[in-house]
Write a structure and sequence with these properties.
255 residues, alpha+beta, TATA-Binding Protein, KH_dom_type_1, RNA-binding, KH_dom
C-alpha cells in the first residue's frame, strides 16, 4: 500500500520475523510492557503468533519509518540482552545481534541477485551479515533470511531488503510459514501416563487408559490368522479388542 505524504512516497509494509521463545519473551517484557512501549513509540502494529511453539512469528506492519523504528527498538533490546548475559560470563567476544526475517521464496532471487551480486552489495554497504536459507520453511513457500550485526547495521540492512521487496513483489500465492507446537514428552510411571510441561509432569487420562489397555491385553491378531503369531500363545488363548477414542491433540505424540 502506498500513499503520498509531504516528504514524498510513504509505503506501508508488513515484515515477518521468526523468533525463539526466549526472544519473544524479551520482546513482550514483564506484563507486556516492552511490546506496548515499542508499539506506542514506533507507531507500528506488532503482533505475536499464539501457541506454545518453540518458534513464534512476529508480524510488524506500518509505514516505512514506523517499521524501521520498531526494528531499531527490537535490535537494541536484543543487544541489551546480550550485554546483560555477558556481565558474569567468561566469554570475551561479543556475539552480534541476530534477526530472522521470513520472506516469500519468490522474492529471494531478487534479494540474492545475479551471481549473488545484490546480497554482496547489501553486506558491503551495511556491514551486516546476510544469509538466505536454501530450503523453504516446512509446509510453506517462505524462506528464512538471517541478518547479523550491530543494531545500526541491521537497520540499514532491513531498509535495503525492504527496497528490494517493494521493487520485486512476490509471484503467485504465498503459503505462510506457521510454526508447529512442540510435542510434549510422555512418560509412563505407576500405571499412569504423564506429559511433561515445563518442570512438571501432568497426568493424562486418555494416554493412561491407552497404556493400561496395552498392558492388559495381547497384541491384535494379524489378518488371516486365528491366533496371534507370537511365541508362548497357544490356539486356546482368547483374544479381545477394545475401541478407544483418542483426541486429535493426543494422536500426534502417540504416533
Amino acid at each position: 500500500d502506498t500513499k503520498m505524504t509531504e516528504g514524498g512516497l510513504n509505503v506501508t509494509l508488513t515484515i515477518r520475523l521468526l523468533m525463539h521463545g526466549k526472544e519473544v519473551g524479551s520482546i513482550i517484557g514483564k506484563k507486556g510492557e516492552t511490546v506496548k512501549k515499542m508499539r506506542e513509540e514506533s507507531g507500528a502494529r506488532i503482533n505475536i503468533s499464539e501457541g506454545s511453539c518453540p518458534e513464534r512469528i512476529v508480524t510488524i506492519t506500518g509505514p516505512t519509518d514506523a517499521i524501521f523504528k520498531a526494528f531499531s527498538m527490537i535490535a537494541l533490546k536484543f543487544e541489551e540482552d546480550i550485554n546483560a548475559s555477558m556481565t558474569n560470563s567468561t566469554v570475551t567476544s561479543k556475539p552480534p545481534v541476530t534477526l530472522r526475517l521470513v520472506v516469500p521464496a519468490s522474492q529471494c532471487g531478487s534479494l540474492i541477485g545475479k551471481g549473488g551480486s545484490k546480497i554482496k552489495e547489501i553486506r558491503e554497504s551495511t556491514g551486516a551479515q546476510v544469509q538466505v536459507a536454501g530450503d523453504m520453511l516446512p509446509n510453506s513457500t517462505e524462506r528464512a533470511v538471517t541478518i547479523s550485526g550491530t543494531p545500526d547495521a541491521i537497520i540499514q540492512c532491513v531498509k535495503q531488503i525492504c527496497v528490494v521487496m517493494l521493487e520485486s513483489p512476490p509471484k503467485g500465492a504465498t503459503i505462510p510459514y506457521r510454526p508447529k507446537p512442540a510435542s510434549a514428552p510422555i512418560i509412563f510411571a505407576g500405571g499412569q501416563a504423564f506429559t511433561i510441561q515445563g518442570q512438571y509432569a501432568i497426568p493424562h487420562p486418555d494416554l493412561t487408559k491407552l497404556h493400561q489397555l496395552a498392558m492388559q491385553h495381547p497384541p491384535f491378531t494379524p489378518l488371516g490368522q486365528t491366533t496371534p503369531g507370537f511365541p508362548g500363545l497357544d490356539a486356546t488363548t482368547p483374544t479381545s479388542s477394545h475401541e478407544l477414542t483418542i483426541p486429535n491433540d493426543v494422536s500426534g505424540p502417540i504416533v
